[in-house]
């Protein structure tokens, strides 16, 4: 558990890992999940939040992604633990770069637009939450890549044969067939 709020850049340009501080006692815990002034002072980009989304995953092994939207996201956990993977699908030198980590309530990430996001519930009743800086739209230009494409070398804790994946995500294209996103 982190003693201090911190922000660290990763190998994917514009992508940051954040250590959040949990304050706990016999009742449970409290955290400042997103505090604009403090996070921007530590290096997080300016982020104008317009929507807050929650994704509840009832079963261990629920796996979602990999989707790249045309907006930024601040992702954290309200409850539980997930394994996350991100793939840069933006046109440029970092196209195809992968970053993975476990996300728990004391961790968060800032994901720039065009970086595909996916995760896998590592326990039952996981609640994943994300703030975004644009409203969801059926007309938005998305990119996606197959979660289990061997070319990505993502070591999912729960294998493809045991993962619970939607038909849509199962049919995401292989990395070799993805057109880089331009902004």
Describe the structure.
- This protein is mainly β and 183 residues long.
- It has one domain: Jelly Rolls (Sandwich), CATH 2.60.120.10.
- 5% of the residues lie in helices and 40% in strands.
- The protein has 2 helices and 14 strands; from the N terminus they run E-E-E-E-H-E-E-E-E-E-E-E-E-E-E-H.
- The strands form 3 sheets. The protein has a 6-stranded antiparallel sheet, with no helix packed on it.
- Strand 3 and strand 4 (28-31) form a beta hairpin.
- It is globular.
- The termini are far apart.
- The mean pLDDT is 95.
Return the CATH architecture. Answer: Sandwich
CATH C-level label = Mainly Beta
Number of helices: 2
CATH evolutionary superfamily: Jelly Rolls
Order of helices and strands, N to C?
EEEEHEEEEEEEEEEH
Any low-confidence stretches, pLDDT <50, length ≥5? none
Q: What is the percent of helical residues?
A: under 10%
Shape: globular
Beta-strand share of residues = 35-45%
């Amino acid at each position: 558990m982190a003693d201090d709020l911190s922000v660290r850049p990763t190998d994917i340009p514009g992508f940051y890992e954040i250590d959040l501080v949990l304050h706990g006692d016999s009742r449970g815990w409290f955290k400042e999940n997103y505090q604009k002034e403090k996070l921007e002072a530590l290096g997080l980009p300016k982020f104008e939040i317009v929507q807050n989304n929650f994704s509840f995953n009832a079963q261990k092994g629920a796996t979602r992604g990999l989707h790249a939207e045309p907006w930024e996201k601040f992702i954290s956990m309200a409850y539980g633990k997930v394994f996350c993977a991100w793939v840069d699908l933006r046109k440029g030198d970092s196209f195809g770069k992968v970053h993975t980590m476990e996300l728990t309530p004391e961790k968060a990430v800032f994901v720039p637009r065009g970086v595909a996001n996916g995760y896998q519930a590592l326990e039952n009743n996981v609640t994943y939450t994300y703030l975004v800086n644009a409203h969801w739209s059926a007309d938005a230009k998305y990119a996606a890549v197959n979660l289990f494409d061997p070319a990505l070398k993502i070591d999912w804790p729960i294998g493809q044969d045991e993962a619970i994946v939607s038909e849509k995500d199962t049919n995401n294209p292989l990395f070799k067939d993805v057109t880089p996103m331009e902004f």
